[in-house]
Amino acid sequence: MKGIILAGGSGTRLYPLTTVTSKQLLPVYDKPMIYYPLSVLMMAGIRDILIISTPSDLPNFERLLRDGSDYGVNLSYAVQPSPDGLAQAFVIGEEFAGGEPCALVLGDNIFYGNGLGRHLRRAVENAETKGLATVFGYHVDDPERFGVVEFDSDFNAVSIEEKPESPKSSYAVTGLYFYPGDVCGRAKRVVPSARGELEITDLNRMYLEDGLLSVVTLGRGYAWLDTGTMESLHEAGEFVRAVERSQDMPVSVLEEIAYENGWIDRETLSACAERYGKSEYGKHLKRVAAGEFVNRNLDY
């Protein structure tokens, strides 16, 4: 399975912070924002990843992440000339996907929770072996801001609406999607909405109407953070800080995930740690390389 991180957009709601840099390069506590969605794809076992961003911001992502070899992944980059909807990611990434199953995660979304990795790997398996698409529902107070999924009495998904005036449930569809190999072909059939965008909700509805959409709800013990506003960006930083201080170790450490997955060896991990110098991030990698965390469960 392949993965796409959509890190485009102008981030106008965060001006003046984003006047000279991408929103997805802003810090969320101790790491650039894009580390969090990238870690989600890595936890799912995905190693071929495409990062899509604006023409001006893309070089900065390349300087930060390079070819991905430090993390045991293969990174590619593509330009989104204008933000014309989330489903556009699969039009831009059609050649990259190459007819293979493909996941999409939004570059400003953060996911956390024990057992998350199992959900991710199951979504990969469903796409690869059963031709099923998987999205994740999360209970919110303001569902009218999101794509909303409606359930029947047996909690089966029966409809999905984009930003409805009268939501039929309080479950928003998060910015994490897993699709089988026909996703790019389906995305090319999505018709622009009234606001001129290729809506991901319309793509999800195609799979739902064909009986090929699995909706997994993330309940108690899970956190989904959309960092698109100043307030939510601050809350995300506070959340990550609280989690890391309570367990005395950082989350979404890319090199550590790669090492635990067997994608890089101890020598590469140690070399990465040295490059981070005296930072807490670097110190943590040195402790991992020294074996201070034995059989650590990275399934968050």
TrEMBL record:
Cofactor: Mg(2+)
One Pfam match: NTP_transferase
Span of domain Nucleotidyl transferase: 2-240
CDD domains the record matches: G1P_TT_short (cd02538)
Catalytic activity: dTTP + alpha-D-glucose 1-phosphate + H(+) = dTDP-alpha-D-glucose + diphosphate
Any single biological process term in GO: hexose metabolic process
Enzyme class: transferase
Keyword annotations of the record: Magnesium, Metal-binding, Nucleotidyltransferase, Transferase
Function: Catalyzes the formation of dTDP-glucose, from dTTP and glucose 1-phosphate, as well as its pyrophosphorolysis.
Similarity comment: Belongs to the glucose-1-phosphate thymidylyltransferase family.
Annotated protein name in UniProt: Glucose-1-phosphate thymidylyltransferase
Organism: Collinsella intestinalis DSM 13280
Gene: rfbA
